[in-house]
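WARN retry 2 of 3 for item q-0093 after timeout on previous attempt; input resubmitted unchanged.
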Amino acid sequence: MGSKKNKRAEAAKEAKKTQYFAKLQNCPTSPRKMRLVADMIRGAEVNKALDYLRFSPKEASGRLEKLLLSAIANWQNKNEGVRIEDTTLFVKEVYVDSARILKRLRPAPQGRAHRIKKRSNHVTLILDSKQTVE
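OK item q-0093 returned
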């Protein structure tokens, strides 16, 4: 690895140490359905985002709520002694990527078969706290 690449990789590692995030891999929901729910909470404060997810009728909201609680737990592990009510924690980024696709066959009339794609996704959620300027 070249010296520039090595320095850039080290800087990325250091930046990741100060981020609070959680990942969900191979979630058996289509990425399109998960993005609808992820768009609701992007940029929202943590307590409001939890309320949005808790009272949403979509199935993907339950999985995203669990992921958000995991990210909050990661934040609490790094910031011991700080109460979550005293901070201005918000959802900085949520992105949904496509994962593996299971390909299945369904019987169709006249001896044919239709292909069915069962999609899944990866979700990454990053938290940040708003800094007050004095």
